[in-house]
Amino acid sequence: MKTTTPKVFFVIGPAGSGKSSVSRLIAQRYGAAYIDKDTATIRFTELLLTLNNSDPNERDNNEFYQNVIMPLEYESILDLTRDNLMAGNSVVLDAPFGKFFADKDYLSKVRVRHNWPAADLVVVNVRLAGEALRQRLIHRGYPRDEWKLANWETFWAGAQANSCQWQDARQVDFDNSAAAADITAFAAAVSSGQS
User: Fold this and answer.
1) Is residue 17 within 8 Å of 137, Cβ to Cβ?
2) Which one is predicted more confidently, 66 or 16?
3) Phi and psi dihedrals of 85, rounded to 5?
4) What is the pLDDT of residue 57?
5) Per residue in 140-166, pLDDT tens?
6) In the prediction, which pLDDT does 195 show?
7) Dihedral angle sign, alpha carbons of residues 112, 12, 101, 67
8) Can you say whether the dihedral through the CA atoms of 174, 180, 184, 185 is positive or negative?
9) Nearest-5° angle of CA 100, CA 102, CA 108?
10) Looking at residue 91, what is its pLDDT?
11) Fewest CB within 10 angstroms: 22, 23, 68, 122, which?
């Protein structure tokens, strides 16, 4: 029987920063459920975009996606988080959350709206320098990254300007510039309460 308070790790950072790799490392380290927004929602997202006569790979400049589909994606993964917390499981959320960064009370609203039990909230800021991130986007070759690469200066400026303002959570940086991500320093920071 688990007696410790579960944790929710919000792993954030721009596309290509390595959120998925870092998220998996954290999930392994803490024995947490791993919820990737894309994996959890991509089938209904692409179907809804197609039914709306939209490019299923274009999200950055698609009003229908931004205003209708994306909120549903986040509501879905936040409900899945509640279900895991109710079972006593820690959760790692692999999703950008960028649209919600300016709302300082976002996490307290999420707790209430999704009926979360007690949990320690940790925001993990995955850091990677701009050129290294651009090279990762080129290397992975995802169709959804085409706009970002074609409009690199705009994308990168927006990513830099959009800092997470959330309260009610510990904020921990994860430097992902090394060839292999290191969980040791991160785990020490989480354990000690440092940011």
Assistant:
1) no
2) 66
3) -60, -40
4) 80
5) 777 777 777 777 777 666 666 568 899
6) 47
7) negative
8) negative
9) 65
10) 98
11) 68
pTM above 0.85, yes or no: no
More confident residue, 71 or 161: 71
> What is the phi/psi pair of residue 109, to 5°?
-65, -40
Q: Please, are residues 9 and 93 in contact by the beta-carbon 8 Å criterion?
A: yes
Alpha carbons 95 and 73: distance in angstroms, whole number: 10
DSSP-derived pairing of the beta strands 7-12 and 120-127: parallel
SS3 of 9, please? strand
- Please answer whether residues 134 and 160 qualify as being in contact, where contact means their C-beta atoms are separated by less than 8 angstroms: no
CB count, 10 Å around CB of 191?
Answer: 8
Domain ranges of the chain: 7-192
Check whether domain 7-192 has CATH 3.40.640.10, yes or no: no
Contact 13, 19 (CB under 8 A): yes
Strand partners, 125: 12, 173
